[in-house]
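Dear support,

Our group has been running a series of protein-ligand predictions, and this particular one with pyridoxal-5'-phosphate is the one our PI (initials K.S.) wants archived with full inputs and outputs. We had some confusion internally about which version of the output was final, so please treat the block below as the authoritative record. The input we submitted was:
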Amino acid sequence: MNKIPYGRQNITDEDVQAVVETLKGDWLTQGPKVAEFELAFANYVGSRYAVAVSNGTAALHLCTLALGVGKGGKVITSPITFAASANCVPYADGEVVFADIDPETYLLDIVEVEKLLKAAPKGTYKGIIPVDFAGRAVDLEAYRKLADQYDCWIIEDACHAPGAYFIDSKGAQQNCGNGEFADLAIFSFHPVKHIAAGEGGMITTNDEGLYRKLLNLRTHGIQQDPAKKIDDHGGWYYEMQELGFNYRLTDIQSALGLSQLKRAELGIATRREIAKTYYQELKDAGFIKGQSGIVPGHAYHLYVIETENRKELFNYLRSINIIVQVHYVPVHLMPYYREFGWKEGDFPHAENYYKNCLSLPMFPTLKHEEQAYVLEKINSFYSEELLEVKLFNK
Ligand SMILES: *Cc1c(COP(=O)(O)O)cnc(C)c1O
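Confirmed final output from the archive:
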């Protein structure tokens, strides 16, 4: 059996054709394909505006700058996420405060968030960054209510969840990144995510003011709206009004992203099928904890099982070319964040999850026989003899 990774991009001939056409056109960096990609992406998630940027981390950076954190301003996020969800806070001179996850959903626990907000004077916390971890949508309606009570903004880190949704209190479907409850939402087009563009990111929002600010920040803080220029020296004149960055996406990447976006729904449907098979085959053996059951609206960026023999199973599967992975090492235990006083024992649910979690291969082109092979190997590992050998060898 060839190597089976935990995630993999799928590049079709149509994708290649789209990129080649762009290469032969007039634009390489930001041009008409970026605008087209933004429009198509906004339509896909159901937001009014979308701003394409160079990657998901750049998207987070611009979001904390646009919403404002201020020196020492505190922002709450989950310890079970990629480090970028937290790093965007110190980028904007703020301080990250972690709160534990809900062991059932693996998502930032709103009860813990509320405790933090309640215990501090109003204004201490500037914002909350919930993460649609593994592709499961956060209940942002509940977060909006809480955030409004404490004058906090919300950035939804939806990198795992384009196409995912939750059902709100009125029974309506709320797509991740639709701008209905969060001030801003961000996505990544890293090859391991649902939509691959090589590198790439997107910010979505329904707020026109934030949208305009993001456009300026993406290109050095140069005012993109001619009507908002303070001066005018002639046709060449451009005006930098604040400190921004070069976080532009290229037309080459956008052509690929656009082409991939056309297959996004198909990809999610396949991911849900794969999840169903894992669930049916593994639930009786006790691997399925928390969110890995059948959850409506889940986009299954990752399929996570939990087992007490995680390290042995990880090593075993890797040794036979099944490249499973662990998502994630808790962010608060990273040496950088330990410097701020975070330590083991701070978040029992997150730390317990980390001890046991394992991400199984999950991508739309995973073949039936490959998934069957993965399941067969997990089962044979746990057939007693093998497990004993493995435990003995450790
Ligand atoms: C991938 C990812 C990011 C960062 O995206 P990049 O495009 O790699 O910069 C941020 N948050 C989460 C949850 C991610 O999975």
